[in-house]
């Protein structure tokens, strides 16, 4: 493991050493707190499906040892001399991004997530050449640009997944005008970590929501707990046909290979389908439903920093959090195994600090 000269802080964390789908305790070095940096005591870290993809090297790009985690909340313990707007003791979060060039058109528009030189919070290569390690660890040093404030109204544990799941659905909803379309209709494909937050955002902004799932068992929860207006079992042709041309928008959160054809048929003419998950196999995209309905398919990846702060502030205002199951640090591997089976409602969050005061 290569260590750069200013990486002097010893940190305890949890890392995957190979493709075995497991993590183990791992001690490593983080950089000193630089003039533009914020040091954070990690309290909680959400477990994203992306963590599993990287741990198992599903995308063929994993650099081991891998310390996953990009849904991080905690408390500021140290500030660099160039940092303003944060104080020691502030409740903060770090999401998917550790660095970007800060100088291109995307960065100037706070679309850091689309910067050519974007560095991910883990499994990325930082400015100093070091490999980035994520939030499955006790402490994090982050550049000030990539730290957001967690509103006091939000508990740090249930807010953690908003840093990835939340912004990943909020960004396309904002971009495509869904948040300015009260009375409009949105379909949410897949009721997992991303899907359940999409339903909450949509209801907060006055949309009519249809959940589209392969699992009939989720209907009651979708309607009663999350407030969805309709529920469609995607494998039931009759139900799908009855919903044809009924939706303005669809957000597809499913990270397994599937066909977009039946989903496109649910959209009105001119409807928009946004993909926010990353199956490791290409999805099927038949041309007829696109052509005959003048429909658009697009993608979206997380969001920029301004947008992330805006999303968190809105969550504070509307009291939107993730439905979570808290996991102790010695339960991470069991949670990963359950995540692989989609056996979670709706997001695992690791209690990194493991102390009863960490909810703050």
Automatic annotation (TrEMBL):
Domain spans labelled Enoyl reductase (ER): 16-350
NADP as UniProt keyword: yes
Cofactor(s) listed: Zn(2+)
Entry keywords, A to Z: Lignin biosynthesis, Metal-binding, NADP, Oxidoreductase, Zinc
GO molecular function, one term: zinc ion binding
Organism superkingdom: Eukaryota
Keyword match Transport: no
SMART domains hit by this protein: PKS_ER
Any single GO BP term: lignin biosynthetic process
A matching Pfam family: ADH_N
Catalytic activity field: (E)-4-coumaroyl alcohol + NADP(+) = (E)-4-coumaraldehyde + NADPH + H(+); (E)-coniferol + NADP(+) = (E)-coniferaldehyde + NADPH + H(+); (E)-caffeyl alcohol + NADP(+) = (E)-caffeyl aldehyde + NADPH + H(+); (E)-cinnamyl alcohol + NADP(+) = (E)-cinnamaldehyde + NADPH + H(+)
Enzyme Commission number(s) of this protein: 1.1.1.195
Pathway linked to the protein: Aromatic compound metabolism; phenylpropanoid biosynthesis
Gene3D superfamilies documented for this protein: Medium-chain alcohol dehydrogenases, catalytic domain, NAD(P)-binding Rossmann-like Domain
Assembly information from the UniProt record: Homodimer.
Family: Belongs to the zinc-containing alcohol dehydrogenase family.
Name under which the protein is recorded: Probable cinnamyl alcohol dehydrogenase
UniProt source species: Miscanthus lutarioriparius
Taxonomic path: Eukaryota, Viridiplantae, Streptophyta, Embryophyta, Tracheophyta
């Amino acid at each position: 493991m290569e260590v750069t000269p200013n990486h002097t802080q010893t940190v305890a964390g949890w890392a995957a050493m190979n493709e075995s789908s497991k993590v183990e305790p791992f001690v490593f070095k983080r950089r000193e707190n630089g003039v533009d940096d914020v040091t954070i005591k990690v309290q909680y870290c959400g477990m994203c499906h992306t963590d599993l993809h990287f741990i198992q090297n599903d995308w063929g790009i994993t650099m081991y040892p891998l310390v996953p985690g990009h849904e991080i909340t905690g408390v500021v313990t140290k500030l660099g001399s160039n940092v303003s707007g944060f104080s020691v003791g502030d409740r903060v979060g770090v999401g998917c991004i550790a660095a970007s060039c800060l100088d291109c058109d995307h960065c100037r528009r706070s679309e850091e997530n689309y910067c050519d030189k974007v560095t991910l919070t883990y499994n990325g290569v930082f400015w100093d050449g070091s490999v980035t390690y994520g939030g499955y660890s006790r402490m994090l040093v982050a550049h000030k640009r990539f730290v957001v404030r967690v509103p006091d109204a939000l508990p740090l544990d249930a807010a953690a997944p908003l840093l990835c799941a939340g912004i990943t659905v909020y960004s396309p909803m904002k971009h495509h005008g869904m948040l300015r379309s009260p009375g409009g209709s949105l379909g949410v494909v897949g009721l997992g970590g991303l899907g359940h937050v999409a339903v909450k955002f949509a209801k907060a902004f006055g949309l009519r929501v249809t959940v589209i799932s392969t699992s009939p068992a989720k209907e009651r929860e979708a309607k009663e707990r999350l407030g969805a207006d309709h529920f469609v079992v995607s494998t039931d042709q009759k139900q799908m046909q009855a919903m044809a041309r009924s939706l303005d928008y669809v957000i597809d959160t499913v990270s397994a290979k599937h066909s977009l054809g039946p989903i496109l048929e649910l959209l009105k003419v001119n409807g928009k389908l946004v993909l926010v998950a990353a199956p490791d196999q290409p999805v099927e995209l038949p041309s007829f439903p696109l052509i005959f309905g003048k429909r658009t398919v697009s993608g979206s990846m997380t969001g920029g920093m301004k947008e992330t702060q805006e999303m968190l502030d809105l969550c504070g205002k509307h009291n939107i959090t993730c439905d979570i199951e808290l996991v102790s640090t010695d339960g991470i591997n069991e949670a990963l195994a359950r995540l692989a089976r989609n056996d979670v409602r709706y997001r695992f969050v690791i209690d990194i600090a493991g102390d009863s005061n960490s909810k703050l």
